[in-house]
Write a structure and sequence with these properties.
Blueprint: E1 2-6, E2 12-13, E3 16-17, E4 23-25, E5 31-33, H1 34-51, E6 56-58, H2 68-75, E7 83-91, E8 99-102, H3 108-123, E9 140-141, H4 145-148, E10 154-161, H5 165-172, H6 175-196
Parallel strand pairs: 1-6, 1-7, 7-10, 8-9
Antiparallel strand pairs: 2-3, 4-5, 8-10
Helix pairs in contact: 1-6, 3-6
Bound molecules: zinc ion (ZN).
Residues 8-9, 22, 34, 89 line the site of zinc ion.
Amino acid sequence: MIVLLDNGHGSLINGEYQTAGKRKDWQEKGIIYEGEFNRAIVNGIIEQLTFYKIPYVNIAPEYWDVRLETRIKRANKYPARSSFYLSVHSNAGGGHGSEIFTSPGNTKSDKIATVFGEEFQSEFPDRHLRTDFSDGDLDKERRFYVLTKTKMPAILTENFFMDNFEEFRDILNTREGRQKIIDFHIKAIIRTKIEIFKESAPLNF
Ligand SMILES: [Zn+2]
């Protein structure tokens, strides 16, 4: 199983943010750029996947904003049956908690999303997982480009809200909070490898 990691947006180059919007300035309390946050999580995932010898590809290692079409073109070079696509984001627009998205329809992506949702809930038992059980499982379904155009299973995690001050202060802008987000992704990836891709557990796990 190869994990295809997508950090979602551009980041900062020479202090200049490459992506329009996708930030929240809390003035004297700090600022969060989604592209920086997404990379911190993806880089933490990469560190752990290397430790566990689980193959991965960083789909957009550049700091500029790589077009969605380019991300998908790169991803679709990998075999659909032995890879899955994981896009990491943080939410905005008012609200709290986290969400796991898949494309509509019941596919392998839904099984993977369920594992991610369960690991989120075990890592953050006091936090809200925004779910939609109308199709029988916890993920929310949207026609996001990276979810519909990928030929392999694909999920997208929205990790808390940048424009919720409490979540910014206590989770998104703290080392501990970011590590917990990394940890639930890693636990979910390892369970996906074992339970869904039917591969053996990593040796040092
Ligand atoms: Zn995003």
